[in-house]
Amino acid sequence: MTPWWLPWRARSSRWAGLAAEAGEITLTVVGGGTGAAQGLLAADVQAGEFTAANLGELVSRNSCDRAHCVLTLEPGAYSLFQVERPPVGEDELRDAVRWKIKDLIDYPLEEAVLDVFDVPPRGQGQTSGTVYVAVAHAAQLRPRVAAIQDAGLRLERIDIAELSLRNIAGRVSAPDEAIALIHLGRHRGMVAIARGQTLYLARSVSYGFDTLNPVASADSDELGLADVDPGLEAIALEVQRTADYYDSYFGQASVRKVRIVPGLPSLEGLASHLGNTLALDAQLVPFEELGMLAEDIDAASLAPGVLALGGVLLPGEGS
């Protein structure tokens, strides 16, 4: 999502990614080139509200003053709609879509900050006729923008969780391979399906790695249903529903792989449960697999803010 007051993203040797959730701010600093040459220079978490003071501590601790910055909004900080694509050119699309969402939001239209990206076609040779519209309330974005600027970062782009996950999916799958990616924050999560650089759909789940109790283990197939945490069942059901919708609506080959981020050991039971119940190749994604985790960075410190990392990854440039 690129508000009108922000320039479009340009390449630079150093980028800072920011994300917030559950009273924590996560900062990731990426540098050393683009694509597979990128390196994760820092991953840090600051407890507290999204203020210039708290951001300033992060920036100071990680020596990233004046780094280019991407803010990835957490689910709940924006709305994502699918609407009919207006019959206008690309240069008029955003303004035309703005009028289509005026009855879908509960604040004045002039306070809506939005971005538009295409819904993939339903089959080969077809056009979808619809677009995704990400919408946020400018009044809620302004304090964050001011805090970032006051903390000494150069805000270049505001992104959304779905596109951050799209970037991560591109790192852990082949260019033409459809993959279901599960992201779990502390208290909530998301299931997204992407293929190459294209996001097809995403749905929220009401569990996170702090609220999930994955009793299932490597031998979970020997456990009775009553022994499995309801959260595992809920996530498995959402993955199945999302994959079924992808197959039927978009007419694409079935999803065979599921990858889970963050790749915390506590989520091994979730991967095992999905593999056993859905007969899919379900695995955790260690941060090392993204080719960006330095030896001296604790992966657990990055777990609450993996969306911050996805925001600074360039799509389609995975290893």
Mind explaining what this structure looks like?
The structure is a single chain. The chain has two domains: 1-171 and 290-314, Nucleotidyltransferase, domain 5 (2-Layer Sandwich); 173-284, 2-Layer Sandwich (Nucleotidyltransferase, domain 5), CATH 3.30.420.40. Helix 1 (52-61) packs across helix 3 (138-150), helix 4 packs across helix 8 (306-312) and helix 5 (230-250) packs across helix 6. It is 28% helix and 28% strand. The chain contains eight helices and 13 strands. The chain is α/β, with parallel strands linked by helices and 319 residues long. Mean pLDDT is 84; it is low at 2-12 and 216-226. The strands form three sheets. The protein has a five-stranded mixed β-sheet, with helices on both faces. Strands 11-10-9-12-13 form a five-stranded mixed β-sheet, sandwiched between helices. A three-stranded antiparallel β-sheet has the order 5-7-6. It has helices at 52-61, 90-100, 138-150, 161-171, 230-250, 268-278, 299-302, 306-312; strands spanning 14-21, 24-31, 39-47, 68-73, 79-84, 112-118, 130-137, 154-160, 178-184, 189-195, 198-205, 257-261, 281-284. The radius of gyration is 19 Å and the shape is globular. Strand 12 (257-261), helix 6 (268-278) and strand 13 (281-284) form a beta-alpha-beta unit.
How much of the residues is beta strand, in percent? 25-35%
Note the total helix count.
Answer: 8
Multimeric status of the protein: single chain
Give the integer mean of the pLDDT values. 84
Query: What's the main sheet like?
Result: 5 strands, mixed
* Principal-axis shape: globular
CATH third-tier fold name of the largest domain:
Nucleotidyltransferase, domain 5
Tell me which CATH architecture of the largest domain applies here: 2-Layer Sandwich
Q: Determine Rg (CA atoms, Å).
A: 19 Å
* Strand runs, count: 13
Low-confidence stretches: 2-12, 216-226
Structural class computed from helices and strand pairing? alpha/beta
Q: Could you give the order of the helices and strands?
A: EEEHEEHEEHEHEEEHEHEHH
Structural domain count: 2
CATH class term of the largest domain = Alpha Beta
Beginning-to-end CA distance, first to last residue: 25 Å
- As a percent range, the share of helical residues equals 25-40%
